[in-house]
Design brief:
It contains 13 helices and two strands, in the order ααααααααββααααα. By secondary structure, the protein is mostly helical. The chain has a two-stranded antiparallel ribbon with strand order 1-2. The chain starts with a helix and ends in a 23-residue tail after the last helix. The C terminus is likely disordered.
Length: about 475
């Protein structure tokens, strides 16, 4: 009961804190609008109507803040306050418009806005402001000055909206998406590495230690490659890929350790520091010895426990049971006479030294780090559908030339250089016989015109194929 009241009180305090923050944002927006619109422009009918609309919206938002009962309502109210505050752009002059636009763009760059979004959305808005202000300040453009200024102000209004959106989005992304994911991956990676060390050096479960180390390396790899800020679609995709990359890291560890155990990778290491001969042990021998020694040590512990149990049973005068749990009919030993316990199996402790185990854990972590390579390979296999690769047209716009124009007479259009007869080298060009029409001289090509300065440039004919247009943006 006390805990429930404490949670309710904490929720009420949090809601009051959010209300005070919304009221502060409302007062700041009203002050900014009044200061920017006080320099002039109130004689414009559009500005007067806009100011009346904004004042009415701010008063309505103040009433909504007082009656809000959930933090989600306050989030929506703060978003509408930012939209009202962006309308202050219509009260700024040309120098302030350029300054405010550049300042907002620079600050959004410091937030880590993705470069693709910046190039596709923010940079065109910044360039549009500069173009509009250049047209507005051009001498002799009194007729279009007002329209250019209004276009620059509306573009600055859009920049203010982008600024408010990314201001709210970055805060929500950091607190609700990035921070929980970083904590989960960090804790999982740290616990996995600790579990690998404990399983390998204390419990002698080397197989568990190897896979724990691989999982820890995968967590650290995903954590280091996590995007600090991503758009909504990319953040959802990153969440799905993070789960897939965790499983891919485990698969990469299995595949890598299997390749090492098969002897396909023949690499030697010195695992015994006291060995002065400098002999190298292959990695697959080290892997096999460590995995087998882990199971042998478990068997040794089981045999030792059985021996202690049999000794205690013989000391009590009770005949021990066979391995299948039945009494073989052997007489009970005399009380006080200990039954000789079987000799324990030799513990192959030196078969897998600490150096060798650390080496295997390092390989497992390395395979876990390579999860991104395996993920890309698997993605390529999934995307491969047998079709030919499409050309990359992201940077150059390809303009189609359309079908070839028809030729009178039904023939195909043949270039002029292909209409000339084949003449062997060193022989003069044959002249037409008397009475035959003389062929029209061929037009000079672009290459010959460029090499011979005496040949004038020929404009394209109306019946031929037009030259390809220059790609947009080049």
């Amino acid at each position: 009961m006390f805990s429930r009241k404490s949670r309710e009180q904490k929720a009420r305090n949090f809601l009051e804190h959010r209300k005070r923050g919304a009221e502060a944002a409302l007062a700041e927006a009203r002050l900014a609008i009044d200061l920017d619109w006080s320099n002039g422009g109130n004689d414009d009918t559009f500005i007067r109507k806009l100011k009346e609309t904004v004042d009415g919206s701010l008063n309505a938002l103040k009433t909504e803040i007082e009656g809000a009962t959930a933090p989600e309502q306050l989030d929506s109210i703060q978003g509408r306050i930012a939209q009202c505050s962006s309308k202050r752009a219509y009260g700024l002059d040309a120098p302030r418009i350029q300054t405010e636009a550049d300042a907002c763009i620079r600050e959004m760059r410091t937030w880590g806005v993705p470069q693709r979004y910046f190039d596709e959305h923010l940079r065109p808005l910044q360039e549009a402001v500069r173009v509009a202000l250049t047209e507005a300040c051009r001498p002799g453009n009194a007729a279009g000055c007002s329209a250019s200024m209004r276009r620059a102000q509306s573009t600055l209004d859009a920049i203010f909206d982008e600024y408010a959106y990314w201001d709210s989005y970055t805060e929500r992304y950091v607190h609700r998406s990035l921070t929980p994911m970083v904590r989960a991956l960090g804790v999982a990676g740290l616990l996995s590495l600790v579990a690998a060390l404990v399983s390998g050096f204390v419990l002698h479960q080397h197989l568990v230690a190897v896979f724990s180390a691989g999982f820890g390396g995968t967590c650290v790899s995903i954590l280091l490659k996590q995007e600090p800020l991503a758009v909504y679609g990319d953040s959802i995709k990153a969440l799905i890929w993070s789960v897939g990359r965790l499983l891919t890291g485990v698969l990469a560890t299995v595949i890598g350790m299997g390749l090492l155990a098969s002897g396909l990778i023949s690499v030697g290491f010195t695992v015994n520091p006291t060995d002065s001969s400098g002999s190298l042990v292959p990695i697959h021998v080290i892997l096999g010895a460590c995995l087998e020694s882990g199971s042998d040590k478990a068997n040794v512990a089981s045999v030792a426990a059985t021996s202690r149990s049999d000794a205690a049973t013989a000391d009590a005068g009770v005949a021990p049971l066979d391995a299948d749990g039945s009494d073989a009919g052997a007489p009970a030993p005399t009380a006080g006479v200990l039954r000789q316990a079987p000799a324990p199996l030799p513990c192959p402790r030196r078969a897998c030294s600490n150096t060798a185990l650390l080496l295997l854990l390092g390989f497992a972590i390395l395979f876990g780090f390579s999860e991104r390579v395996f993920a890309r390979i698997l993605a390529q296999f999934e995307d491969r559908d047998g079709s030919a690769p499409q050309p990359n047209t992201s940077s150059t716009t390809i303009i189609s030339r359309g079908p070839e124009p028809p030729v009178p007479g039904g023939g195909a259009l043949v270039p002029a250089d292909e209409q000339k007869p084949d003449v062997p080298a060193g022989q003069p060009t044959p002249t037409p016989a008397p009475g035959q029409p003389t062929a029209a001289p061929s037009q000079p090509t672009a290459a010959s015109a460029a090499s011979d300065p005496t040949v004038p440039a020929q404009p394209p004919s109306s019946g031929g194929t037009p030259p390809p247009s220059k790609p947009f943006g080049t």
